[in-house]
Amino acid sequence: MVLFNSLTFLFRFFPVFLIVYFITPARFREVVLFFGSIIFYAMGAGRMAILLTALTIVNYILGQMVFSADKGGAKASNKRAFYLAILIDAGSLILFKVLSGLSRGFMLPLGFSFYLFKMISYQADLFRGEITRRPDIMDTVVYFTMFPQVTQGPIMRWNNVGFEKRERTVTPKAFSDGLFFFVLGLGMKVLLADPLSTLWNEIEKIGFESISTPLAWMGAVGYSLRLYMDFWGYSLMAAGIGLMLGFHFVVNFLHPYWACGIADFYRRWHATLGAWFRDYVYIPLGGNRKGKLRTIFNLLVVWLLTGLWHGITPNFVLWGFVLFLLIIWEKFVVGGLISAFPLLGHLHVWFFIPLTWVIFAIPNLKDLRIYFERLFPFFGSGINVNTGDFMKQIMIYWPLLLVSLLLCTPHWYRLIVKNRTRMPVILILTAVFWICVYRIVISESNPFMYFSF
Questions:
Q1: H or E stretch including 8?
Q2: Which tens digit of pLDDT belongs to each residue from 316-342?
Q3: Catalytic residue among 248, 270, 310, 348
Q4: How much is the pTM?
C-alpha cells in the first residue's frame, strides 16, 4: 500500500508523477493524472483497481445517458439509466460491506465507500440538471479516480472543484500553498496521530477492566484527538496535493471541536460526507419540511445509514443511533438553551463526542460495557482500580495531548495559516517535514484510520 506518509510516496511516486505531470502539455494532463491514479491505486489495492476502472467506465456510459434527459429526468428511458446507475453503485457498496462484515478474510476494496459515494452524487447531479456541460470521458475518469481523494475522500462534487469550467491553472502561489497544507497534514499524522495511537493500544493491552476511571477518560480524549489528527491530517494532505495539481481546495474539517452542539459538530467534521447525506438522503426524504415526526424519522434514517456506512458491526449502528438521539435532544429539547447560552453547546461537544468515539472504537459490546463502567464507575467495581496508571500515562502523552488540543481551536490553526509565507513558519515546517521523514524511517508507517471505510 502506498501511503501519503510513506517514503515510497514522498520520494518516489509523487516526485516522479509531478515531473511527468508538469512536463506534459496541459491538454494531456488528465491522461497523466488518470494513469498515475490507477497506478497509485493498484499499488495499494492490487487487482481491485480493475473493479474501480470497471465502475468508472459503467458510470461514465450511464451518465452520458442520464445527461441527455430533460432537466428533472423527464424521459422515462433516461430515468431508467439513472436508476440503473444508482442500483449498481449502491448495490455494489451494500454487497461489499456485507461481505466484509460477515467474512473476516474478505477485505473491503480500498476507498470503496468514498469513490462510490462520489459516483452516486455524480449521477444524481446529472439527473437533476446541476451539471450543465456534458462531461467528457477524461474529465469523468479523472474525477472518479484521482489519487489524492480516491482512497479516503474528501467526497468532492463535480461543480465545486473545477471540472465544470476546467479551472486547472497552477500558479506558484497555489503550488506553494499546496505544499504548505501537505506538510502540515503530514505533521498532524506522523507526529501527533501515530504517537497518540499507542495510548489506545496501551489501554487495550492493560485490559478495559483493569484501568482506572481517570485513564479511561484520558483514553477517550486521546482516541478522539488521534482520530481527528489522523483524518484532518489526511484531508489537508489531499487538499494540498489537489492545489499543486490545479484543483480547488476542498475543506473537509471546519474546527469541529469548536462547534456549538452535536449537529454543528457534524456539519464541521468530515464536512463533505455530512453534506452528501444532507443533499442526497435527508433533503430528498423531505428534510425538516414535513413536520416534527417526519423530521425525526428522516434524521433516524440518515444516522443509521451513517453508522452502517462505517460498518455493519453493532457498535457502528449503536454509534449512529446515539448521535441521532443527541441531535434530537438538542433540536427539540434544549435548542433554545443552546441558542441563549452557547457555552452549553460547547460543553455538549466536549462531553458527549469523546463518549461516542468510544462506541465507535470498540466493536465488542461486552468490552464496550466494561469501558463505560470504567468511565462511570457507579455500578462497576469503583474508581480505585489500578491507581497510578493515569499519572504514568499522562507524563508520557501530555505534550501530544496539549498540542492536539491547541490545534482543535481555530485560533492557533488560523495563526499558522495566516503566517505561512513568513520565514519562521517556513523553517518550522521544513523541520517538521524532515522530522516526519526520520519518524517514518525508524518506524513502520501507520495506515490512515479511514482507509477501512
A1: helix 7-8
A2: 999 999 999 999 999 998 888 988 899
A3: 310
A4: 0.90
